[in-house]
Design goal:
- This protein is mainly alpha-helical.
- 83% of the residues lie in helices and 0% in strands.
- α2 runs parallel beside α4, α5 runs antiparallel to α11 and α10 packs across α17.
- The longest helix has 49 residues.
């Protein structure tokens, strides 16, 4: 066996060990995600029934997302300085404390929307510690060849809340209360912490001197890392718009279905639709050689947007489930395509803070969508579709009239916007330069190995 073969075998064995360790870590996140999904689904239904307002549900979603989004850059800086494993453990532990506050409120005789929102906000606050650290550990554990595969695995874990939780939550709500769902979620945190402790080697990175930590300077370095390439800046803009559009379906899908169906049907439909996410993630995780991540991203955005729009076309559970399934099939292509294009164009030592900043900027699209979706649904589109204007009548002849059809129209518009973004992406030169950079690096690495 020559030196080149020995190096290859050593690299293969190392990759296999790292992938096994990463798989265990993802399994822990899978369990945690299921618990989080139970709480998300249960609290959304609970608040919607308690208030009868889409706007109130939007406020709950804002409280769930805003603290995590705002503090994501801080979490990213910390992830580059401290033990990322410990960051994930602390994030899980203190997120559970926020859920305890929610549990106390929903189990009281006089539940308070303010207290529930506060508990959700605290839980989100500490999640900001965990998520950038977890994203950065992909680079710690795995080689570049496994990034896309790992991305598929992570998407399966994160989206267990969409795949499994809604159906389980919908069925459980027939026999129990939202408080039980929150208790189950709290218990999953402990399981996840044990998994993170188990996967304790191979995750550490070279940490900087803590005494020299300066958040301002670190944030400046993160900004410089993502602003140094026009392609990454373009990707952030693209993902912000995509997230904005997807935020509408997150808020509006529940009142859309509950306008003509029940909680159990909603949960089952959400789970059936989310099987598309698993199907898409599995396909991508099995791909060893993806030729173009730009095409993956562009086609994902277009397909996701078209089927997103079609969800509002008819008041029919079967059609909505079918279109929702297809929408989720394309969604992993969007998430993984964008992540790989950015990850492979950033150095490892700044990835924690860079991903924290990227998360902060792009996910603000959710906040804007949450604010607008509730207001537009309650005060513009629903009243419009219940009116008798010629335009409303003509649109109603296509998508139907009555309660929930204004929400359907809003979903239709957001979906078409997302599809248009997919078309634009395929034409952007700045994004294509990111792909060219990846190809160049792969050629250089292969040449160096061959010389050995």
């Amino acid at each position: 066996m020559n030196q080149y073969d020995e190096i290859q075998n050593s690299q293969i064995n190392s990759r296999d060990k790292s992938m096994k360790k990463f798989t265990v870590l993802v399994a822990g996140q899978f369990i945690s995600s299921i618990g989080s999904g139970l709480t998300d689904f249960g609290l959304a239904i609970y608040v919607l029934q308690l208030t009868g307002s889409v706007t109130a549900t939007s406020i709950l979603s804002i409280c769930a997302f805003l603290p995590s989004i705002v503090l994501a850059p801080v979490g990213g800086v910390l992830a580059d300085h401290y033990d990322r494993r410990m960051m994930m453990i602390l994030g899980e532990l203190f997120s559970g404390l926020g859920l305890v506050i929610c549990l106390v409120s929903v189990m009281s005789s006089n539940p308070s929307l303010v207290v529930i929102c506060a508990g959700v906000g605290i839980s989100s606050l500490f999640s900001a510690l965990m998520e950038p650290a977890f994203n950065a550990t992909i680079t710690d554990l795995l080689s570049e060849e496994d990034y896309a595969r790992a991305g598929g695995m992570v998407q399966i874990a994160y989206n267990a809340k969409l795949l499994i939780s809604p159906a389980v939550a919908g069925l459980l709500l027939r026999i129990t209360t939202v408080g039980t769902l929150i208790i189950i979620d709290i218990l999953t945190f402990f399981t996840t912490m044990f998994v993170i402790v188990f996967v304790r080697k191979g995750m550490a990175v070279k940490l900087k001197n803590v005494e020299s930590l300066s958040f301002v300077r670190e944030m400046e370095e993160g900004i410089a890392a993502i602003s140094g390439k026009s392609g990454i800046v373009a990707m952030i803009v693209i993902m912000s718009i995509a997230v904005f559009c997807l935020g509408f379906v997150q808020i509006l899908s529940k009142p859309l279905i509950l306008a003509f169906a029940g909680e159990t049907e909603l949960g089952l439909l959400a789970t059936v639709s989310a099987f598309g996410m698993m199907a898409g993630s599995i396909v991508i995780s099995m791909m060893k050689n993806i030729k173009s991540h730009v095409k993956m991203l562009s086609s994902g955005l277009f397909g996701c947007g078209i089927f997103f729009a079609l969800m509002g076309a008819r008041e029919n559970l079967f059609l909505i489930a079918a279109f929702g399934f297809m929408m989720f099939v394309f969604l992993p292509s969007v998430q993984i395509g964008a992540e790989v294009l950015i990850r492979k164009n950033l150095p490892n030592e700044v990835q924690g803070r860079a991903f924290g900043l990227i998360s902060f900027i792009s996910q603000m699209g959710y906040i804007f969508a949450y604010v607008l979706s509730g207001v537009l649904a309650d005060y513009v589109f629903e009243p419009f579709m219940k009116g008798t204007s010629p335009l409303a009548v003509n649109i109603g002849n296509v998508i139907g009239t009555g309660t929930g059809r204004g929400i359907a129209l809003l979903i239709f518009i957001a979906g078409l916007t997302l599809a248009a973004v997919g078309i634009v992406v395929s034409t952007l030169k700045s994004v294509k330069t990111l792909e060219e950079g990846i190809i160049k690096n792969e050629i250089i690495d292969k040449t160096c190995l061959e010389r050995l």
